[in-house]
Amino acid sequence: MVFLQYRTLGSRTNDSWGINLLDLASGKRILLDELSTDSWREEAIYGQVRTFGWSPDDKLFAYCRKKQKEIVIADIESGKIVATFPVSQSIGSGTWLSSQTLVCTDRERIFAVTQSDGQWQPSQDFFTPAGPPGEGETNQPIESLQAFAADTVLWQQGGDIWKLRQGDARPERVWQTRTNELVEYVYAPEAEKFL
């Protein structure tokens, strides 16, 4: 389990939040990261951190910090940070496609950080809309990334759900709302169904 905990270090100016890993079976606890904030309020830290969860092999945990402008990948076995990637805009959401590929969006484009030959590589574009939207497309923010397959990502844009396989030039719309508002969706890869 990964959780955030407020850490008081004496004076209010030195307070911080710890991102902790807890092994439920053994009770072993590891501090993954410590985040300073100028406020003890929970809203202050939630404005800085966003989690992407466990890699498919359960060996890595990914999150972003620094007001969602730095992606962090931590090794769960050692509790060490193995890679960090600064980005220019705040990250809206992210998902693991495989244990070597994390895909994120800054709401305007989708990009991937990948591991190759044991080294994590800086972000590479996965999808950036080219120019104004075509017929039936939208310029709404890219939100709610989810893995569809090891090389394919889903996302919500306005009332539509889109799918793109890595390397394809254009995404495919897989669902569209006509008169309703799409608030949230979930795709269950094991069942291959939208919920």
Q: Care to describe what's here?
A:
- The two termini are 25 Å apart.
- The chain is globular.
- The protein has one helix and 17 strands.
- The strands form five sheets. A four-stranded antiparallel sheet has the order 4-5-6-7, with no helix packed on it.
- A hairpin with a 5-residue loop joins β4 and β5 (60-65).
- It is mainly β and 195 residues long.
Short synopsis of the structure:
This protein has one helix at residues 42-46, and strands spanning 2-7, 16-22, 29-36, 50-54, 60-65, 70-75, 80-86, 93-98, 101-105, 110-116, 119-127, 142-149, 152-157, 160-165, 172-176, 187-188, 193-194. The mean pLDDT is 84.
Mean pLDDT: 84
Output the structural class.
mainly beta
Report the principal-axis shape: globular
Gyration radius over CA? 18 Å
Number of DSSP strand runs: 17
Q: What percent of residues adopt helix (DSSP H or I)?
A: under 10%
The largest sheet is: 4 strands, antiparallel
Q: In order across it, which strands form the biggest sheet?
A: 4-5-6-7
Distance between the termini: 25 Å
Strand content of the residues, in percent? over 45%
Report low-confidence residues grouped into runs of 5 or more.
Answer: none
SSE string, helix = H, strand = E? EEEHEEEEEEEEEEEEEE
* SS element count, helices: 1
Topology:
Blueprint: E1 2-7, E2 16-22, E3 29-36, H1 42-46, E4 50-54, E5 60-65, E6 70-75, E7 80-86, E8 93-98, E9 101-105, E10 110-116, E11 119-127, E12 142-149, E13 152-157, E14 160-165, E15 172-176, E16 187-188, E17 193-194
Antiparallel strand pairs: 1-2, 2-3, 4-5, 5-6, 6-7, 8-9, 9-10, 10-11, 12-13, 13-14, 14-15, 16-17
